[in-house]
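Repro:
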Amino acid sequence: MTHGPRLAGHRGVTFRGDAPLDPSQVEDTRGRGVGGPILVGGGGIGILILVASLLLGVNPLADYAGPDQAIDGAPSVQDCKTGADANKRTDCRVVGLVDSVQKYWSDEFARRGQTYHPARTVLFTGATQAGCGYASGAQGPFYCPEDGKVYLDISFFDDLRTTFGAQGGPFAEGYVIAHEYGHHVQDELGILTPGTGAGAQSRSVRVELQADCLAGVWARHASDTGYLEPPTDAQIAQALDAAAAVGDDRIQKETQGRVAPEQWTHGSSAQRQRWFTTGFKTGDLDRCDTSGAL
């Protein structure tokens, strides 16, 4: 596993080169390992990815750096100054995406006469201590309501392509981050009440699909935040492809050889794509009501 800055690749410029980035919204703890047991906490893609990782033979402990062990030469998001940096480095792109997502929701809450309280994203390597307990990067990105933070090991973006078969790209990454911030929006609105059961119509699935829809709402308005160029059809396709890649049915088929809707916790590939599309086409969080038919 490499820990240096990663280049953005050839999938096209996403950020406006002169857009100023605010790295203070991202806590960079990469290079500092965490010891102790792993507890699954938070919401989002995380629990599903942890189960899939175990079934696919991925060791959740493999990336531990060890207690208080620093990695020499580890990059820092403090080097991320402009959108040009976000177009070159994955960690800077995370900063830009977080800035954009939070700018949109701050403005939208203000438009509705409400106050949005920003949530920091914690970048970590291997494992970290969150308010929800110790967490491994193998469980995927997650939002922890106990401390109101999003947690992300950016190696997940590689796993999204290599393990789960997604195309990847900047808007796939944007979908992942915006989905987790969708849970923070739910938390801010007082509607984040994850269910304990499973099944295609479960409360857990409805919470996750609503977060997908909220990610789509941000994508519709992403260019209005001043950080990103208007997304192309190809970039929206990246987001839809990522949503499909982490659908319960696709992961079950790959890991178990069969689909078991009674075990779903996040929704099928088709559902996840449909709700992201609903948010993107309407650009309205009020259209993200998943309490009815899914």
